[in-house]
Amino acid sequence: MLGARQFIRNFSTSKVSWDKLKIALIGQSQFGAEVYKVLKQKHEIVGVFTIPDIQGRADPLAQTAESDGISVFKFPRWRKKGQVLPEVLEQYQSVGANLNVMPFCSQFIPMEVITNPKHESIIYHPSILPRHRGASAINWTLICGDKKAGFSIFWADDGLDTGPLLLQRECDVTPEDTVDTLYNRFLYPEGIKAMGEAVDMIADGTAPRVVQTEDGATYDPMMKKKVAEISWDQTAESIHNFIRGNDKVPGAWAMVDGQEMTFYGSKLWSGSKPDGSTVDIPGMTSQAIVHNDGLVLFGTDGKMVNVGQLQIDGKMIKASKYGQAGDDVQLELTEEELAMADTIKTIWMGILSREDIQDDTDLFKCGAGSMDVVRLIEEIKEKCNGLQLQNDDVYMATTFAEFIQMAVFQSRGGGKKEFIFDAVHTQSNNMDLTIPYQLFINNEFVDASNGDTFETINPADESVICKVSKGTKDDVNRAVQCAKEAFYDGEWGKMNARDRGTMMFRLADLMDEHKEELATLESIDSGAVYTLALKTHIGMSIDTFRYFAGWCDKIQGKTIPINNARPNKNLTYTKREPIGVCGIITPWNYPLMMLAWKMAACLAAGNTVVLKPAQVTPLTSLKFAELAAKAGFPPGVINIITGSGSVVGQAMAEHIDIRKLGFTGSTPVGRTIMASSSANVKKISLELGGKSPLIIFNDCDMAKAVRMGCGGVFFNKGENCIAAGRIFVEESIHDEYVARVIEEIKKMKIGDPLDRSVDHGPQNHRAHLQSLLDYVRVGVEQGATLAYGGKQVDRPGLFMEPTVFTDVEDNNFIAIEESFGPIMCISKFQDGDMEGVLRRANNTEYGLASGVFTENLSKALRVADGIEAGTVFVNTYNKTDVASPFGGFKQSGFGKDLGEEALNEYMKTKAVTVEY
Ligand code: NAP
């Protein structure tokens, strides 16, 4: 940048009063055209000198000037054998310019022209001179890893970029910048403005001429394909700089598998090494990895770079598809989208100056260049409802048919735009974690309306993980409003069911890709043992999204025979429609899985949603929101409001525009929700508490009954809604069963949930641990025998010993109330008293799950028939599956999660009767 000391105020123009300048504009491109538009506002453009038409198409500068009736000259060249062409010089002189302005000029302009006007010539150069003189300045700024980029306007010289400086501007280079982003966000828009300012300074006599120093000067060669071969013998950052510095032109390349492969869309990769297939790249220290999000390359420092696209044999492909056959789904176009396709065809006709645009017409093979890409994007934005495409989108879909598919996909919200949000960056479980911490409304992470936050705690050591926004009633209102707009007016409401499914599959894939990060977050936020979090909390969440994604295009009504009204006939059919804006409120025991069980069905049915996670475990819901935005869910479809039940949950239950509320939590809160939901008679489903009986007969497979009985109680440290809350054991095997259970417990390893060998992690939060200790105290006070455990573990964190009570009487508090912790309550029943034990098992207000262990099939089936519970496990326990309906009876609530039945919870049925 020009420093004060550098200024040699050797003005070329004596201070004159403001006067319109007579400008000759020498240059080309859209940039030239925009500079022209700025300058003509205050000055007189006496002539435009540009390049000849290419394939009958005039340069944008020529087009703009011609439409204003300005004289436009299109010289193929200005000189021959080093001598200016006299006829060219004469025509140039005829316009009588007193300043030459050269915004972007690819031709060599002779010094006779440069120095001809009174004020001589100024020229734009996209680097901070004297650094990166030469024709590929932006490329070199990136290749050299410069932290600053910028441009210079200088007094033109003989083409070596050494003339005195008039004005410079600079900006920071971010690790994500490419040639395109630097140009589009800074060099282009600021450059146009600065050219106007520079000319004004000349007009009012204040334009400096600062002699360029040679300190830090470089002259960099033009980047051409032959010098853009990647050397793998450098760090990941240098490889990234080289690739992005050549993105798009000329494209950094390497020989892979005997073919020239060009790499685009480079990003530094900070996550763990992705799973995928490997590719040998000669010279690279490790094998590259093709994975769901691209191709990971390795530098000599072992760090990684991810590229998004590859060009092989002239064809661009997604790097994630390298080595695979194409499997792109063809979108079916709605009428509105067909009209958009027609508009786009007209735009292509204009850009390519040809009438016949066929499906296989290729934009670039028909002569389009990079400025045409800019024009195409801008025209589409202007004429197709603000549809914002990116340069990459155009380069990846070069034929007309591919382009229409891509544009429609993007218009439905499947955008690949970079999603920027504030996040907490931390490390745990040997990985980098990126944790969104704000409310997610309309696809943006935002603070709560009053700025309030709360701390979320790691129960393994009670440390603070981060602060999270604490939503308000106003935030709920805003989220509901956005969800309503998304449902009634947005892309989601218009999307066909199959595309909805495709989007849900994409989200499931992204969750899969991030499963280790999600499982780590679940582990540190809820105390879940990591391996269980990976398999169940996250694994089943992914399965749930895949399962319901498959349902999207299989939601059908019926045709129903009704009485005909003679002489006419009738047809009655039903349609199953989404309800609208749904609310979901979840508990803390399986934070992401409870979200998935409800939200996947809710979205598959076509609704939009506002979800409140439990305040003590907000993190995986927020991470999920990030992934949903990245999967392309349109704004407003998914909204997450973190905060308390009494404020956020209550506001949702009472909200007039939430037409359905799915709730999982305790029975007392379920009752409150039922009352609050009466405000607008909303449809509700309640998955509430449980005290699930497990009956063990003396003819059972004992080893299995012990193992599964322990799993039934201690799985997820007992924080399991279907936990076996009461175990009834037949008298003749009771003592052996108790002894074997205690042996089994002694083998359980208690400790850091991130340790892969640990079985039993900390309880979810301090208040819960305290309630469990109180529960044990009451059990002892009422006379049950504490056979094992019962205390907090003597170590930091919220660990509770796995606990066993025996001699539990039916009227004991611990026989009636749910503990929701690792506490086994065992009661005896008399040998052979099947009716008696069934009566006792059903003598509860809950009815969520149940189990029976016996080798006798008819006993098992009689228990399954007689037990009043939504789920019965026979000779197994905890075996839930995404395809099997799940939900309770009695005060365990009503409505189902999972399976086809879950869809009904989020749909309404319309009956249509036609007379014909
Ligand atoms: P909870 O206290 O009932 O809380 C559940 C959710 O409701 C939380 O997000 C809570 O917000 C919110 N809430 C609290 N008061 C509210 C109100 N007035 N209006 C609206 N929402 C309100 O239950 P929990 O302690 O988180 O979870 C444990 C319970 O869930 C156990 O009873 C367990 O059996 C049950 N559960 C049942 C199933 C099932 O499928 N049946 C599955 C899992 C768990 P906060 O953030 O303020 O707590």
Largest sheet strand order: 3-2-1-6-7-8-9
Total number of helical segments? Answer: 27
List low-pLDDT spans. Answer: 1-16
Please give the share of residues in helix.
Answer: 25-40%
Oligomer: single chain
Q: Kindly report how far apart the N and C termini lie.
A: 81 Å
Quick one: overall form? elongated
Pfam families: Aldedh, Formyl_trans_C, Formyl_trans_N, PP-binding
Protein name: 10-formyltetrahydrofolate dehydrogenase
Keywords: NADP, One-carbon metabolism, Oxidoreductase, Phosphopantetheine, Phosphoprotein
EC number: 1.5.1.6
Q: Which descriptors would you attach to this protein?
A:
916 residues, alpha/beta, seven-stranded mixed β-sheet, 27 helices
Quick overview of this protein structure:
The protein is α/β, with parallel strands linked by helices and 916 residues long. 35% of the residues lie in helices and 22% in strands. Residues 1-16 have low confidence and may be disordered.
